Amino acid sequence: MRVRTRVLACVAALALSSATPTLATASAEAGNGRPGDLVSTEPSAFHPLPGRPTATKAWKIHYRSTSATGAPNVVSGTVIVPQDGRTGPRPLITYAVGTVGLGDSCAPSAGFPNGTTMEANLIQQLTWRGWAVVVTDSEGLGTPGEHTYTAGPSAGHAMLDAARAAIRLPEAGLGADTPIGIMGYSQGGQASSWAAELHSSYAPELKVKGTATGGVPAQLAKLAPVHDGSYGSGLLFMAAAGQDAAYPELKLDSYLNAAGKALIGFFRNNCVAVDTTVGSFKRISDLTVKNPLETPEWQARLAESDLGRKAPDHPVYLYHALADELIPYSLGSGLRKDWCARGAEVNWRTIVLGEHISGVITESPRAADWLADRFAGKPASGNC
């Protein structure tokens, strides 16, 4: 039962005929415009659970962004706006969900109309506050190509460009002066932390008031010994596939044996619920002819996703569960130390009771309250 509970914890981590241009040309036109420009839009729907209505309007969007290597790409996402009678400006949250998987069907935008996207209930709580929300699918999830899972720079670009795209969507009713909050946990914590670090250099025109980020895998290399051969080992191999998608020169397949190639192929077509079950208790040595993590090429690319080397230019609410079994507490506390050393304004919170999955659920209201204070213009108080 303990194993089953932990595996479940890993889990709980119309054609576009009216869109112009169509997705058939979207990829080819990735470089024709600015990051954040809309490529296509279509009406969608936001349901936190199957059949549950919400007082919102939603749009599926495709927008221009930037890959981990600096190349132009196209990313999909969803813009959600409360229908609460408000006609004036409202805040915007750019939100990244935790791990959902590598298959296109796992994308948040694919699940919102059906009420099957994880964290949708948490996102609904943000719309209840009157905030608009844009949820990125991240690179390669719901668009051509492979999902660049755990490639930090790509994820940060996608979050910031999602905010730009939401502001440029006329139907959303937002504007250049829209106050913005960045929010995410786990994989979304990596994405939101990267967005916080990249904001000043990549999207300084966005009026970011604060970032709320938790369960952050701040240094990927330190996760390998945690997950190798454990119930979370599927996440390790998914991350290897994501890094290979971001940096094709890594040639992951050349390190895999037949069993490894079969497992990675399976992951690329399925979602986290199945992946974490099928991939659990696997060792790197069981699936490879040589450990890629021991090579300089892989070590260098993994290090490019390390956080803490640049201070965010706005206040940050950073939180981590003391008993986090998937992403060690030391990674969160280490990120706090690194950001504080560089002069960042960090409000750090240790979740004393709980583990990885419960952390996002129990802390989400507190993180949203903290963002509400930033939108209200209240001074942030760091505790470095």
Main sheet properties: 9 strands, mixed
Number of helices: 14
Widest beta sheet: strand line-up: 1-2-3-5-4-6-7-8-9
Mean pLDDT: 92
End-to-end separation: 40 Å
Gyration radius (Cα, Å) is 19 Å
Q: H/E order of the elements?
A: HHEEEEHHEHEHEHHHHHHEHEH
Low-confidence stretches: 1-28
Helix content: 25-40%
Report on this model:
- By secondary structure, the chain is an alpha/beta fold.
- It has helices spanning 2-12, 23-26, 108-111, 120-128, 152-168, 187-202, 224-227, 233-246, 258-267, 272-278, 284-287, 296-303, 329-341, 356-375; strands spanning 38-44, 56-66, 72-82, 92-96, 132-136, 179-185, 207-214, 316-321, 346-351.
- Strands 1-2-3-5-4-6-7-8-9 form a nine-stranded mixed sheet, sandwiched between helices.
- Helix 6 links the parallel strand 6 and strand 7.
- The radius of gyration is 19 Å and the shape is globular.
- The termini are far apart.
- Residues 1-28 have low confidence and may be disordered.
TL;DR?
The protein is an alpha/beta fold. It has helices at residues 2-12, 23-26, 108-111, 120-128, 152-168, 187-202, 224-227, 233-246, 258-267, 272-278, 284-287, 296-303, 329-341, 356-375, and strands at residues 38-44, 56-66, 72-82, 92-96, 132-136, 179-185, 207-214, 316-321, 346-351.
